[in-house]
């Protein structure tokens, strides 16, 4: 008898259509959960950064990291990743011999995650992740700079790089090119594409443009198909 009742109740529950109020409650609950994730995990650190300069976290693809390293291969001097996320580029650069390798990241959770990755890789004492606003750090001694930021902030970034980087520095930009500088090399296709720019005394914009989508790096494989 009891079994009949619970089977009946189950069938009734399965067949019943949710009411508009229930749907509304589910939608509100999901919205609240999404807001909580955003406020607790993604937003910290950005409170003092103007909205137009806020760039969300998206990790570089494995292929993109490979391309960044290819374009920085064999270069001496310090590497910095501006907006280092979970630290994957800094860690990979350190493993390839670029030292010191430093990441600047605003989101404290990502900084912690980066340290965790470095610790697991046995590199915690060799790399550096700093919770700092990339717009406020000095780049005067940086000869290798990696960026993977939103196109909307790149014009402003160009100005900062132009003003602060020493002659001889190289900038590699993942997924989005710097808007007015002329690249010296381009590797990869689509989302994995990375552009390299060198700072000469005449300024980076003075340099020759490589052929269209030539993906040319001396000694490197040509454009790699996805
Ligand atoms: C598109 S993600 C790239 C992450 C990492 N560089 C990678 O390639 O995997 C951009 C990162 O920049 C960080 N970021 C955005 N604005 C920043 C700022 N003003 N100072 C420091 N980090 C910032 C974001 O938190 C995010 O982690």
UniProtKB/TrEMBL annotation:
<dbReference type="InterPro" id="IPR026170">
    <property type="entry name" value="FAM173A/B"/>
</dbReference>
<keyword id="KW-1133">Transmembrane helix</keyword>
<keyword id="KW-0812">Transmembrane</keyword>
<dbReference type="GO" id="GO:0032259">
    <property type="term" value="P:methylation"/>
</dbReference>
<keyword id="KW-0949">S-adenosyl-L-methionine</keyword>
<dbReference type="InterPro" id="IPR029063">
    <property type="entry name" value="SAM-dependent_MTases_sf"/>
</dbReference>
<dbReference type="GO" id="GO:0016279">
    <property type="term" value="F:protein-lysine N-methyltransferase activity"/>
</dbReference>
<protein>
    <submittedName>
        <fullName>Adenine nucleotide translocase lysine methyltransferase</fullName>
    </submittedName>
</protein>
<keyword id="KW-0472">Membrane</keyword>
<keyword id="KW-0808">Transferase</keyword>
<dbReference type="GO" id="GO:1905706">
    <property type="term" value="P:regulation of mitochondrial ATP synthesis coupled proton transport"/>
</dbReference>
<dbReference type="GO" id="GO:0005739">
    <property type="term" value="C:mitochondrion"/>
</dbReference>
<feature type="transmembrane region" description="Helical">
    <location>
        <begin position="23"/>
        <end position="42"/>
    </location>
</feature>
<keyword id="KW-0489">Methyltransferase</keyword>
<feature type="region of interest" description="Disordered">
    <location>
        <begin position="203"/>
        <end position="226"/>
    </location>
</feature>
<comment type="similarity">
    <text>Belongs to the ANT/ATPSC lysine N-methyltransferase family.</text>
</comment>
<feature type="compositionally biased region" description="Low complexity">
    <location>
        <begin position="207"/>
        <end position="226"/>
    </location>
</feature>
């Amino acid at each position: 008898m009891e079994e009949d009742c619970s089977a009946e109740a189950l069938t009734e529950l399965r067949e019943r259509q949710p009411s508009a109020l229930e749907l509304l409650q589910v939608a509100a609950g999901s919205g609240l959960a999404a807001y909580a994730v955003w406020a607790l995990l993604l937003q910290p650190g950005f409170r003092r950064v103007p909205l137009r300069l806020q760039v969300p976290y998206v990790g570089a693809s494995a292929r993109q990291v490979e391309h960044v390293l290819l374009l920085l291969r064999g270069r001496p001097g310090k590497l910095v990743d501006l907006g280092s996320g979970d630290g994957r580029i800094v860690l990979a650069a350190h493993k390839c011999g670029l030292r010191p390798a430093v990441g600047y990241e605003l989101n404290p959770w990502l900084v912690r995650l980066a340290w965790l990755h470095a610790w697991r890789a046995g590199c915690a004492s060799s790399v550096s992740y700093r919770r700092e606003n990339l717009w406020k750090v000095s780049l005067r001694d940086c000869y290798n700079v990696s960026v993977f930021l939103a196109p909307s902030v790149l014009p402003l970034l160009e100005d900062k790089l132009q003003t602060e980087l020493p002659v001889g520095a190289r900038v590699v930009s993942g997924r989005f090119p710097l808007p007015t500088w002329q690249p010296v090399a381009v590797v990869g296709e689509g989302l994995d594409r990375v552009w390299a720019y060198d700072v000469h005394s005449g300024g980076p914009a003075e340099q020759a443009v490589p052929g269209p989508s030539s993906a040319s790096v001396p000694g490197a494989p040509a454009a790699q198909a996805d």
